[in-house]
Amino acid sequence: MAFSAKPTKLESGTWGATVAGPCRVGDQITITTRSGTWWTTTIASIVSRSRGMAICTIVGYGVTHFGRTRRDHNIDIFANSGERETSMKNITGVYPIDSQFSCEYEHPEGIVLSRSDAENLGLSIDED
What we know:
By secondary structure, this protein is mainly β. About 10% of the residues lie in helices and about 40% in strands. A hairpin with a 5-residue loop joins strand 6 and strand 7 (about 75-80).
């Protein structure tokens, strides 16, 4: 069962999730932003619980990927190795610019996201 969640900026400055319900580490969650963008990820740790809600760190691409701002203000996505990212497994509901296929699928030319999608995924963005 995947719990519903919303993106949450953690005290550490990274992105996590606010999850309703009795979630545990390792549970799958579906994070949905106000704009309707969504993706599925996994709870890495529970930071705190209060009133039936849990603040969680998440396994995700904010840790293993980063973005660089392009001249058109969109974001090129790179793996921490520095190579252009061509797919982002387990990221559903997020579509590269000018693509009808989500980030889960192979994009040989590399993945380019809108700034809001990159920020919603919690990516660190270099401002070249």
